[in-house]
């Protein structure tokens, strides 16, 4: 006899009938929970490939990040009017910006002392500080009307990496690995290379995952034969012993994780142990340049004191993408070395010497190996510099108009898109925001920034936040 659930049991027989009827459901729930736990415990490695939304042109990204804000008006954006007005106040016809140092909007203009020339068949302008990159302009698409929202380095670097001036969102490398996975099982899908011991402003959150599972975060490589700390086991530990140790650690981690399903950090740790085991062979090989020819090493400037460290990182970046690493970020002047509030001439002369040859070598090497069509190379910092002077010979931060460039997979070379005004202060033509740059990067990789979403706090978050459009004018 069926007893409605809202009626009180009339006898012990009624009570047992109701209680017993639920035992099967309890058993089924237990079995389903156990199966779900087993599925969840199978950590999905970064190497799990996922289908792109559209046909991709690029398989991987190398981002040359010039930390500190390179001066576009001294590198790629010549301004004859600025040269003529040098030493004079900002004309009233130009809107005064809010500047990081506050007073810069009221200081005199500082003309560029560089000599500019047109290069290649495209006739793109490049200053005498970057002659090697100047020889590669026909594979490059310049974005001269870039804009951003961050006035200081922490916010600017954070936005250029994550789309927001506030920390807490996934980086572009994390979005890329989340959307596509990695083709390489022996190396991280996302690698970060620094040329100085100092982290960029904001540190590791620039290659972090924010609200996304930590398994997609970037791995910072150190310089030298041991790029990752504590990776190489002692000589007394055999491979079999190492495997047994990792299996036991995994068993303990899984036991701990079974009671803490919401802790994605633990899932990332389990995956990291397994990846580290595979990297014990692969990582030393990728940083060992003994199989590279002397001409290749010289191409990158490994034989010169001022370019050896940056050249090594650029060559390593090529070797990483060659092995299937999805996203490599190479920092130049890490620790805001390009931040030329004073002596822009001395500052930029040094860091241009360190970066010009290696970056040009990267473009040439990728091209001659047939890899440039499948590798998207990006050049840029968090913002540009003002045409107004600071300290008499330096420049303040300028997120209102600056230059970036892209080359390789999916990009039409020999293009100059956008423009700043006559003195290089404001973007005035074909302006593109950081979100537009991010949407274009993802498009080249075959990802639609509006379809690439991750559920967080009741909404589907996307990498370009609430904006972003693909810059069609620079696409091949």
Overview of this protein structure:
By secondary structure, the chain is an alpha/beta fold. It contains twelve helices and 17 strands. The chain has helices spanning about 10-20, 25-40, 80-85, 130-135, 155-160, 170-180, 240-255, 265-285, 295-300, 310-320, 345-370, 435-445, and strands spanning about 60-65, 115-120, 125, 140-145, 190-195, 220, 325-330, 375-380, 385-390, 395-400, 400-410, 415, 420, 425-430, 430-435, 455, 460. The strands form five sheets. Strands 1, 4, 5, 6, 7, 8, 11, 12 and 15 form a nine-stranded mixed sheet that branches. A two-stranded antiparallel sheet has the order 2-3. Strands 9-10 form a two-stranded antiparallel ribbon. A hairpin with a 6-residue loop joins strand 13 (about 420) and strand 14 (about 425-430). Helix 7 (about 240-255) runs antiparallel to helix 8 and helix 10 (about 310-320) packs parallel to helix 11 (about 345-370). The radius of gyration is 27 Å and the shape is globular. About 50% of the residues are buried. The model is unreliable at about 30-45 (pLDDT under 50).
């Amino acid at each position: 006899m069926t007893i409605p659930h809202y009626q009180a049991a009339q006898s012990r027989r009624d009570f047992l009938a109701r209680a017993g009827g639920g035992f099967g459901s309890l058993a089924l729930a237990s079995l389903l929970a156990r199966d779900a736990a087993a599925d969840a415990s199978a950590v999905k490695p970064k190497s799990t490939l996922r289908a792109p939304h559209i046909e991709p042109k690029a398989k991987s990204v190398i981002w040359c990040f010039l930390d500190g804000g390179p001066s576009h008006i001294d590198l790629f954006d010549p301004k004859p009017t600025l040269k003529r007005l040098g030493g004079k106040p900002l004309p009233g016809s130009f809107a005064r910006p809010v500047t990081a140092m506050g007073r810069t909007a009221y200081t005199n203009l500082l003309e560029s002392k560089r000599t500019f020339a047109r290069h290649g068949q495209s006739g793109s302008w490049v200053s005498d500080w970057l002659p090697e990159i100047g020889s590669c302009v026909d594979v490059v698409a310049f974005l001269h009307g870039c804009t951003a929202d961050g006035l200081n380095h922490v916010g600017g670097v954070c936005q250029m990496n994550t789309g927001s001036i506030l920390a807490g969102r996934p980086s572009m490398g994390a979005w890329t690995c989340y959307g596509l996975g990695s083709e390489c099982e022996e190396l991280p899908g996302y690698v970060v290379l620094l040329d100085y011991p100092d982290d960029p402003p904001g540190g590791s959150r620039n290659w972090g995952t924010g609200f996304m599972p930590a398994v997609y975060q970037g791995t910072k490589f150190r310089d030298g034969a041991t790029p990752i700390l504590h990776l190489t086991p002692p000589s007394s530990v055999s491979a079999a012993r190492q495997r047994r140790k990792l299996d036991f650690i995994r068993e303990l981690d899984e036991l701990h994780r079974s009671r803490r399903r919401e802790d994605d950090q633990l899932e990332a740790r389990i995956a990291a142990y397994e990846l580290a085991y595979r990297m014990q062979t692969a990582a030393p090989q990728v940083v060992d340049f003994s199989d590279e020819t002397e001409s290749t090493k010289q191409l990158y400037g490994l034989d010169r004191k001022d370019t050896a460290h940056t050249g090594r990182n650029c060559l390593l970046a090529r070797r990483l993408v060659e092995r299937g690493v999805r996203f490599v970020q190479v920092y130049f002047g890490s620790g805001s070395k390009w931040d030329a509030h004073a002596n822009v001439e001395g500052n930029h002369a040094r860091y241009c010497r360190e970066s010009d040859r290696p970056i040009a070598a990267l473009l040439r090497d990728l091209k001659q190996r047939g890899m440039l069509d499948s590798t998207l190379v990006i050049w840029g910092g968090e913002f540009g510099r003002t045409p107004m002077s600071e300290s008499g010979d330096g420049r303040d931060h300028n997120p209102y108009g600056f230059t970036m460039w892209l080359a390789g997979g999916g990009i039409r070379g020999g293009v100059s898109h956008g423009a700043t005004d006559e003195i290089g202060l404001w973007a005035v033509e074909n302006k593109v925001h950081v979100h537009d740059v991010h949407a274009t990067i993802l498009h080249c990789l075959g990802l639609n920034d509006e379809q690439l979403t991750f559920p967080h706090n009741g909404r589907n978050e996307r990498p370009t936040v609430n904006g972003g459009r693909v810059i069609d004018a620079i696409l091949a």
